[in-house]
Amino acid sequence: MFARQFRVKSNTAIKGSDRRKLKADVSAAFPSLTADELSELIPNKEELNVVKIYAHKGDALTLYVLHKNPLFFELEKRLYPTVYALWRHPALLPTFRTWPPVLEKLIGGADLMLPGVVAPSSGLPHVKRGDCCSVTLVNNRAPVAVGNAASSTEEMHSSGMKGRGVCVLHAYMDHLWAFGDKSGPPSFPDAEGEEQEANGEDYEVKDQPCSGIEELSLVEQEEQRGDEEEEADQGDQKMPQETMDALLLQCFLHALKKKVKKSELPLLTSTFLRNHMFSCCPSGKQLDIRKSSYKKLSKFLHAMQKQHNLVRVKELTKGVESIVEVDWNNQELRYFKVLEETNDEASSAQDGGEAEPPYRPPEITTLYSVSARLEPLFLDANKRKGTILQPAEVRHIVTEYVKKNELVDENNKNYVTVDPTLCDCLLERSEYQEVQSLKWDDLFGRALGKMTECYEVVFPGHAPIRKKGHMEPIDVSVASRGSNKKVTVIKNLDAYGLDPAAVGAALQRRVQASSVLQPVPGSKDKVLVQIQGNQIHQVGHLLTDYYQIPRKYIQGLDKGPKSGKKK
Asked: What is the 8-class DSSP label of residue 236?
C-alpha cells in the first residue's frame, strides 16, 4: 500500500477528546498492552498529530504521528501499528518469520508467501483469516512488515504451506516508514534463528539450490509495481552498484558545479534530480538510483550531507524535502572536473540561466476507429469495428474501395458516384434521394467524420498510449483573487509529461513572482500551477520555445495582456 508515494491532505494536532478516543481504540484493538505501555505510545501531554493522506490508489487513510514518527494508521476504520510502534513492542502482534533476502521484495509491495515462512519449533502462531500480524526476519525479532493473514493457521497447514500467507500493507523502507525519522530496526536477537543457522539451515544459496528465494517466497503484485517497471527491470542488465554509485556522484557534482545557481535555492530535491542531475548524465549511460546502493534520492542526498558536507537538505513542507544550502567552497566540489560539456549547454546557461531540460515533448497523432456504421465500407480491407487507423490508411482504403467498384465519375474524375454502401455509411437520411455523387475531399471528410476519433501519445523511450476522444490541451487562464489581484492558472501539464513543480519553478525564475501548486478541484491526483499576475505571454514562451509543446495543444494564450496604454 505504501510502496509508492502518498499524498498528504491535512496535518493537524490531535484534540483532547480525539486523543482519549484513540487511546480507547488502541486498547481495544491490542488488549495485550498494559496501561503504562499504552500511555507511552499515546502520551497525554506530548504533541500528537493526525495526518490524513491518500494512497497512490486513492484509498483514504489516517496516520497518528508522535515525535514525527507514525505509530498507527487507520484503514477502513481499523487500526494497524507501524514498524515504529512494533519496534517498541515487538510482541504486539502474531509474528511470521522469513529469510532476510525476502525483505527487498516486501518493500516493493509483494506479499509474503507461505513457502517463504520459517516455522519455529513451537509451530506457527494461531491466527484467523484477516487477523493483523507482523513479519520478522530470521535472527532478529524486530518486525519489518505489517499486514493481514491471508488464511487461518489451520488453512495454512491444510494447504501444505502453499499460497499467500500475509497480505502486506506496510513494510520497513516504504514511504510510510520514510514519513518518519527513517531509523533502522533495533536488534532483538532470535535464539532459535541462530540455532537454525548453526545447524546449516542458512538462507544463503551457495551449495544448495534451495528452490530459490524468489520462487519460494513471493508473488509480485503487478497492481503495485506496474507491468512496465517489471518488464524493464527484468530486461535490463544490472549495472554493478559501485559503478552506479560513481555515476550518481559524478552527476551530482556536475549538477552542483554547472547547473544549480544560488538564486534557485531552496530547490526541491525532485526538481534537482529531474532538471539538473539527469541532464548531466553522460551520453550512452542511464542514471537509475534504484540500481545504486542508496536506492532512493533522499538517502543519497543525506549521505552527501553527512559524509561530504556538500549540501544541506531540509523538510520545508511535511514530506517534501528541499536543498536549502550548497557549499560551493567544498574541496571535493572545487576540484571536480566536468568530463564533457557541450557548447549548447554552456550557451544556454549563459543566455537564459536555465539548463536544457531532460524533457522531450511527446509525439501526438490523431487516429480514427472504425465505427459500426462504417464497418461495411472497410470489410474488403478486413478492418472490423474498433480497428484503429491513421488518416492516411483511411484515405487509402476508401480510395481502393472506389477503384475496385469503379465508382469514379467517367465525365468528371473529381467526383465519386455514391453506391448503396457509400449511401448507407456516409449520407444522412435526408440526402438519400438528393446526393448522387461526392467530391473526393467531401468523401474523405465524411468518412473521417463518421469514425470515432482517437489519439496516440508517444513519450520518448515509452510504449505508445492510445485513448479515445481528443487530447486535452494545456489550459492557461487568468483568474481574479481578492479585489484587484490577478493570477495565472495552468492545468493539465501532467498529460504532456511535464512536472508542474518544475514548470512553476521555471516561471518563478523568469517573472520573479511567487508560484504555488494546488490540487485540481474534483481530482485526487492532479495539480495545477498558480503564479501571480497575468503571465500568459511568459507561459506561452516557456511552453512553446523551451518545452517545445506545439501551440495547437495550448489553449488560452490569446488571453494575455494586450500592448497599449499602461496604467
From this structure: S
